[in-house]
Write a structure and sequence with these properties.
Length: 175
């Protein structure tokens, strides 16, 4: 798979939307920056509102533009107290969702079932959902075992990966 960072002159065969969801400070914006621009910032600020970035990929000789959407740092507030039309607009048309938790913060993992409930209530039943345990470069601070994550992924029919936006581990594979 070849990839282009910011090449807007080529013909696009397909466009697909990916949404990033999960608790505040799990690394959603860093995963977005790593994938879209191959960047990582140690002084990242919380996302305000919504943003998306794109990246063009070549998959089986087709030009595919991935739109990766990131939401505000207070997603629980965003999704549960914001109007349904705004929430629906965020999810509308998504073909993939990355459900992200921080392997060093158990509470971000414990909230996964509620995120799944919301996601499944807002998206097409055929959406691909990937459970991402981020920050696996902090192995000595791990609070969520890989086995626990694999178990919930299997129970819920999700794909599973552990990533490190800092080290760029498995970020490409998540898409």
């Amino acid at each position: 798979m070849a990839a282009g960072y910011g090449d807007s002159s080529q013909k696009i065969d397909y466009v697909f939307k990916v949404v990033l969801i999960g608790d505040s400070a799990v690394g959603k914006s860093q995963i977005l920056a790593r994938f879209a621009r191959d960047e990582f910032s140690l002084d990242s600020k919380a996302t305000i509102g919504m943003e998306f970035q794109t990246r063009t990929l070549s998959i089986q000789r087709k030009s595919v533009k991935a739109q990766i959407w990131d939401s505000a740092g207070q997603e629980r507030v965003f999704t549960m107290k914001t109007s349904t039309s705004v929430t629906s607009a965020y999810y509308r048309g998504a073909v993939e969702a990355m459900l992200i938790y921080d392997i060093t913060k158990r509470e971000t993992f414990d909230y996964i079932p509620r995120w799944l409930q919301e996601l499944r209530g807002q998206t097409d039943k055929n959406i691909v959902i990937i459970l991402l345990g981020n920050k696996n470069d902090l192995e000595d601070e791990r609070a969520v075992s890989t086995e626990d994550a694999k178990e919930i992924a299997e129970q819920e029919g999700l794909f599973f990966l552990e990533t490190s936006a800092l080290q760029s581990t498995n970020v490409e594979d998540a898409l």
